[in-house]
Amino acid sequence: MTSWTPDLRPDSPRYIAIADALADDMGAGRLAPGVKLPTHRDLAWRLGVTVGTVTRAYAEAERRGLVIGEVGRGTFVRAQTPDRPPSADRQDGTSRDDGQILDLSMNLPALPSEPEAVPGAVAEVSGDPEARRCFDYTTSLGLPEHRRAGADWLARHGLESPPERIVPTYGAQHAMFLACAALAEAGDTVLVEEATFYGMKSVAKTLGLRLTGVPTDSQGLDPAGLDAAARSTGAKLLYCVPNFQNPTCSVMTAQRRDEVAEVCRRHGIAVIEDDIYAFLLNDTEGAALRPLSCRLPEQGFYIGSLSKSVSPALRVGWLAAPAAWIDRIAVAQRATVIMPNPLLQEAARRLIASGAADRLAAGQRREAIARQRLAGEILGRPNSGARIVTHPNSFHIWLQLPPIWRTEAFVSAARRRGVAVTAGEVFFVGRVPGPDAVRICLSAAPNRKALERGLRTLAGLLSEDPTLEMPLV
Question: CATH number of the domain at 117-354, please?
């Protein structure tokens, strides 16, 4: 836990001043993503304010998206989503904002292999008189041709589903929200991997859902642990990432998928399967590792997206669901965005039909492989004491730190050296003590030269004495 004591502006209410100071210190790099903030009581004592004031301040900071609170664990500085694409960075990988920070904390795709493909598709739709109906309202389930395009794209990753069971969405995060809104009510328990994508934590917080972590190993969810969690909680919903799990990079084997599906079938558990990284599988893996949803046709809710493979700016995704649930998902769609964006869906349809989407996805996969090799060469030295947990095709790595380093100290030291990474703590659910680890997003760097610079900085830190990083008082 950090010893953060903010300087408060005198002209604002105390709770606003605390939230403002938090934002200022995050922007200046004094508080890195994943850092645990002082307890309400501790900060209140330091500032000479009431505990209620600090509670209001942390609530305000969470409303702004600055922090995330975990019941029983504390309040943590949240990784911030960039408001610019990676191409807005200098060629050496430093930010235009401060000239220093290489941000490897967000799982962004690399710069596209065909940079004009997506802008060209959007311009083509805008200038095509035949696409006129894409400028008007559609139904909450979108246009039929866009549902067919979604079915076509998902089929590439092993999910064969008729277009009538495909719901176009604003990306995978929106699909996740729609599935949870349709399947669960406030107070319900949702099972997740013990270290889970924090986008799911945001959905759970918004919908009032309770998350329970399930033990995992190198192959993903532990079937025995899943069975025990189902028995103890009575949960009827599971969210998981079978391919390139975020943050641990695990890929479920075919046998493990069979075992997990059998547990879900036995307990009547619906599965929200987030498969946005499926395009990173090589052809042999892709053919062998059919989605969980194929094994659970009436319980599987499958999420696909173009955000990682083609472009995050398109905000195009799809949710494949059992027929009995489509109307309920349509209600959630109307309540959130009225309808999927027909302009963006049409651009996506054309990219898929022309083959450009496949080429862009293949380019991302090739770049991910090259960056993984680079990371292995630089961080994989046997004398560092660190352990790289990853997959040769993954966008990111899960770096388990050597015994001399604590997560918070490493994240802060890396930030001071100009590299932002995500603390492992922010992914864990409930009171599960996570290992001292960080997630490093290799594809977030604007180019390999910038990535190499950042990785060498991190490699240097791994072999240093962390006490040398402590400020003198």
Answer: 3.40.640.10
Residue 283 CA to residue 294 CA, distance in Å, equals 18
Contact 240, 246 (CB under 8 A): no
How far, in Å, CA of 254 to CA of 259, rounded?
A: 9
Tell me which architecture the domain covering 86-108+359-469 has in CATH.
Alpha-Beta Complex (3.90)
Region 435-447: what's the mean pLDDT?
94
State the distance between the two ends of the chain, measured CA to CA, in whole angstroms.
18
Cβ count within 10 A of residue 338: 12
Q: Supply 439's token pair.
A: 């997630």
Position 435 confidence tier, pLDDT thresholds 50, 70, 90 = confident
Q: How far apart are CA 54 and CA 46, in angstroms?
A: 11
* Residue spans per domain, the chain: 14-77, 86-108+359-469, 117-354
Strand partners, 438: 399, 423
Q: In which residue are the tokens 């060209």 written?
A: 120
Are 113 and 356 contacting, i.e. CB atoms less than 8 angstroms apart? Answer: no
- Pair of tokens at residue 437: 């680890």
Q: What is the pLDDT of residues 60-85, one digit of tens each?
A: 888 777 888 766 678 888 865 433 33
As a whole number of angstroms, the distance between CA 168 and CA 330 comes to 10
Q: What's the one-letter identity of residue 351? A: L
Cβ–Cβ under 8 Å, residues 4 and 25 = yes
> Can you tell me the distance from the alpha carbon of 363 to that of 413, in angstroms, rounded to the nearest whole number?
33
Q: Is the domain defined by 14-77 classed in CATH 1.10.10.10?
A: yes
Tokens of 191: 């099972």
